[in-house]
Every structure is written in C-alpha cells, then in structure tokens.
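Please predict the structure of the following assembly.
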Amino acid sequence: MPFVTYATLPAKTILPGITGHYAHMEKITLGDVEVAAGTVLPMHQHPHDQFSYLLSGRVEFTVGDETRLLEPGQCAVIPGGTPHGCRALTACRILDVFSPARDDYR
Amino acid sequence: MPFVTYATLPAKTILPGITGHYAHMEKITLGDVEVAAGTVLPMHQHPHDQFSYLLSGRVEFTVGDETRLLEPGQCAVIPGGTPHGCRALTACRILDVFSPARDDYR
C-alpha cells in the first residue's frame, strides 16, 4: 500500500467532535483530523511521541504546564508521557503524528 | 520547546528546488517542505520509515516500482529501505514525516 487517499480511509471518532483518518506504518501513525469548534480534548497522556501540526483554524493547546494559542503553521511538540490537551476555538484541521504507531487506532 | 512555529525554523535546502523547515523529537522528524515546479528528487533510500503527505500542488511519486500522481490529501507510504523519488508537476507543499528522527537534518 505505497499510496493512501486519506478521505477514503475509515473515519475514526476519537471523542465527540474529533474525527480522523489514520494511516499506519511500522514506526509511525499519521492522522488527518477534523476538530469541531468548541471541542475540548481533556488532558491525557500516552507513551507515544506526538506532533500536532495545525493546518487550519485556531486551537488553544496545553503541553505540560504551558498553554499556547496555535495558528496554522504552528505545532505542538509532545514527548511521550507528557500530559496534553486542547480546546478548539474554531473548526480545525490538524495533522497528528505518533511514534511508535498507535496500534490502538488500527 | 513544546510549541514550534515552522516559518521561524531554519530553512534547510535538501537539493535545489526542495527547501524545508524541520522539527525533531526523539523518535520523529516532521518537515514542512516546499518543492518548486519541475523539481526532480532522484530515486534514493534511507532506513527511516517515511510518510509524504501532499498539502498542495501535484506531484508524481514513485515508491518501489509503483508510480502515482498525487493530489492534495494523498500520501506516499515509504517503509525504511524502500527506493523512492518524485517529480513536482506544480509547486508543491508536502509534510514529510520520518521515524527514527533524521539526525542528519538536525
């Protein structure tokens, strides 16, 4: 499967208001994620390193004890085990990258 | 460094016509890469798993012995050690994800 069309991948609802399409390799999961305006992703943590790259919209993101309003072209950097969460101020599109792969999302 | 503004990262020219901004974690490198129309990235390989997610433009991508014309929302999936290359039919913006991190890009 050397090529993927994200829109044709099964949609996975992470929680109400957060729906993504995810592709997986051995070491990486890459998700194209839509977040509805007003959605709150509560603080949580997992062992995977994560980048959350904002493609469109505005989101208030917390990593550890730092909170930042992100605009497109900005990215949250979340080392494995670090508590993080976010609140979408508008509808957002985010690319989420994880390593190791999110086997729980397969 | 829990937040990154890609445009403020140092620009790295991979070869003429391909310039990216790269952020690194322990296990992942994420690059926001601009490719000029007509640029050819010759076939090459590396041990890192790679996703190349097309954000804008049109690119002809080869992975192993398969070639595909990619449009935005499509992605090349390149397991470590797999020969790959591409040709930009228009100016393109691509998000490149690598694991392990590209220490040679730091």
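The CA atoms of residues 46 and 81 of chain A lie 5 Å apart. Chain A touches chain B through 37 residues (CB under 8 Å).
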